[in-house]
Amino acid sequence: MPTLVMKFGGTSVATLDRIRRAAKRVGVEVAKGYDVIVIVSAMAGKTNELVGWVQETSPLFDAREYDAVVSSGENVTAGLMALVLQEMGIPARSWQGWQVPLKTTSAHSAARIEEIPPENINQKFAEGMKVAVVAGFQGVSPEGRITTLGRGGSDTTAVAFAAAFNAERCDIYTDVDGVYTTDPRISSKARKLDRIAFEEMLELASLGAKVLQTRSVELAMRYGVKLRVLSSFEEQTDTSGTLVCAEEEIVESNVVSGVAYSRDEAKMTLISVADRPGIAAAIFGPLSEAGINVDMIVQNISEEGRTDMTFSCPTDQVARAEAAVKKAKEDGIINFHALDADTEVAKVSVVGIGMRSHTGVAAKMFEALSAEGINIKVITTSEIKISVLIDRKYMELAVQALHDAFELEKAA
Amino acid sequence: MPTLVMKFGGTSVATLDRIRRAAKRVGVEVAKGYDVIVIVSAMAGKTNELVGWVQETSPLFDAREYDAVVSSGENVTAGLMALVLQEMGIPARSWQGWQVPLKTTSAHSAARIEEIPPENINQKFAEGMKVAVVAGFQGVSPEGRITTLGRGGSDTTAVAFAAAFNAERCDIYTDVDGVYTTDPRISSKARKLDRIAFEEMLELASLGAKVLQTRSVELAMRYGVKLRVLSSFEEQTDTSGTLVCAEEEIVESNVVSGVAYSRDEAKMTLISVADRPGIAAAIFGPLSEAGINVDMIVQNISEEGRTDMTFSCPTDQVARAEAAVKKAKEDGIINFHALDADTEVAKVSVVGIGMRSHTGVAAKMFEALSAEGINIKVITTSEIKISVLIDRKYMELAVQALHDAFELEKAA
């Protein structure tokens, strides 16, 4: 039998009625002849409640106990989903991480999946079980303790199961009906994409399009798992949602696939840094140790042996970044004249695998922003992405202007 | 190191503050030099929520999934308790049933404990762990699935651990401060007992004194586990609460230890039954098959080959009992003239191991009731108990009168 993995997120299983609705979707796939592995999250809100309790016990809690507590939400959903499927006449049973077993490292709260031996579940499929409902987000360490994979870990669980069971596809049911050319709340012209390449999805995800957890997309790319994102709240057909797949499976696409944004960015500039080999390492070493998520980095042209170094990071890390840089100065590791922090910026990016074979994307982007009078503060580029930092107040305008300029409302 | 088992029920761990309070009690015992095994229930209300969800999915749910869902509440408390203890500087970790492992039969939702190998936990004690926090009420079946022991199973878990680890004592922390001579809500003279025999506790528990689950008392009696019932809401000394122990450890006691009652009883009488060998089996077989909890049974003196047969059962089972008896008549299994159901009765009992060596208890009981003008409808006796059915409206009066007559307000 071909195997299908279906993953339902917290809002898709928030109530018994929603679990029933999700179960109906599972029933449709079972009727098509699939052996189905369903990965479930905790009912919406439950994980936050559990995390809140743990945090209240102690600021520096034992991550092993955190995992033991927090993983319980998924167990509840898995059992309920199995019960609802049985009530529909579908042979189903629930599996907790340790029962599969989903083996992970011992890095509690951020464990990595090491192995998913398929034997136990396959044996039940062979005995007539049609659906294995697996509690997402959790596994078991070599020491036999419960681990969790970190927030959004249920997406990763789903993709890992799809890889381990050679599933035909991994369907991620969520509260949006697919991946859009941009955020529909910002541009009413946003269009749902039928297909998107793994690489594009990675750029969109890390840029703030929070549809899929980045790790799950990386894993899908590595193992060639076809991922489909679709809504658990709408009737589905075979072409519903967005398929995240290898570049080769996308026949036609626009040069630019989407416009992403990240609102809470800050731009920090070290003015007049001594320009010498190793200076970047001297600056970004201490920032990394302080846990700052440095994103864009730009070094200006050096004049008379000194240069300006600009980088961006999330707004809420600015204070920590300033402290780290100042301490590095005090310690004599780096030297600069002034530190300038601009916390009123946002990042806007255009993303598309078509850029690899098309030129002129950057020029068109800058032109569109210029036509709206938007000043660009920092630019970075990669093979399939161009990002700019701009004043935050222009963010929505910039997204709309770029969506129009690249005519993303039209399919290729 | 001597081992102590401490069990905290749902109300004792209902909030983080209460868990902290319970943890302080644990800390006191650790300071005395004990290795402590803490058994925890789910936070009050949580199990009911989970059971409600399961029941909503299906009237005839799969008990294996029920267990997987319902056991999650205890896991949460166990993790939180371990975190709070760690925060107090006490080396502690949580254990779920399958991690111990607490091995049970496969009778899901009503599993029996088969074995608790102490090696895993003892190894951690040897490594310096001071407290093992174990999720109560749950275990693992030979098939590797999660089982639960039925309602109140955490008491049973606690006693089983005390037996498996040869604990010095098993302290059951609850929302009452011990076992009383009768319900203090009914008689203001009710007195807390310092000690009570296992046998007495069993009679009191099954008669409605819901302090300890019957199974846990049976288990404690079989393995000679000293049980102490005490309040988690009061400061404790070494003589707090009530010790439930073997008869031999009770030096002095009143002839009668307590007065128990059961409010919602019904008395049913089959009038003019053909009196022949096997008639009792013919009547009570069908009732047993219908799941009726028949309690007292009285057969009147036979006259001319016919007799009246009276039995009691819970009020809410009367309709089912009537149906079962009538069907047995239609099927020709039994024959009687009329069926009389009195649903306005209550049961009152006096219990005491002293009855074994003292006579006149029954006479004194009947006299006390007679002095209040209370008519006795049915009488049954056992070695350490005398029970009567009376009109429900006299129940409180009867309890008070008996408490006075046997002077239970005075210690032996």
Automatic annotation (TrEMBL), chains A, B:
Catalytic activity from the UniProt record: L-aspartate + ATP = 4-phospho-L-aspartate + ADP
InterPro entries: AceGlu_kinase-like_sf, ACT-like_dom_sf, ACT_Aspartokinase, ACT_dom, AKii-LysC-BS, Asp/Glu/Uridylate_kinase, Asp_kin_monofn, Asp_kinase
Binding-site residues for substrate, renumbered to this chain: T47, E74
GO molecular-function terms, A-Z: aspartate kinase activity; ATP binding
Pathway annotation from the record: Amino-acid biosynthesis; L-lysine biosynthesis via DAP pathway; (S)-tetrahydrodipicolinate from L-aspartate: step 1/4; Amino-acid biosynthesis; L-methionine biosynthesis via de novo pathway; L-homoserine from L-aspartate: step 1/3; Amino-acid biosynthesis; L-threonine biosynthesis; L-threonine from L-aspartate: step 1/5
Keyword terms of this UniProt record: Amino-acid biosynthesis, ATP-binding, Kinase, Lysine biosynthesis, Nucleotide-binding, Transferase
Source species, domain of life: Bacteria
Pfam families associated with the record: AA_kinase, ACT, ACT_9
GO cellular component, one term: cytosol
ACT domain segment(s): 268-353
GO BP, sorted A to Z: homoserine biosynthetic process; lysine biosynthetic process via diaminopimelate; threonine biosynthetic process
Its EC number(s): 2.7.2.4
Annotated positions binding ATP: K7, F8, G9, G10, T174, D175, Y180, R185, K210, V211
Family: Belongs to the aspartokinase family.
Name of this protein: Aspartokinase
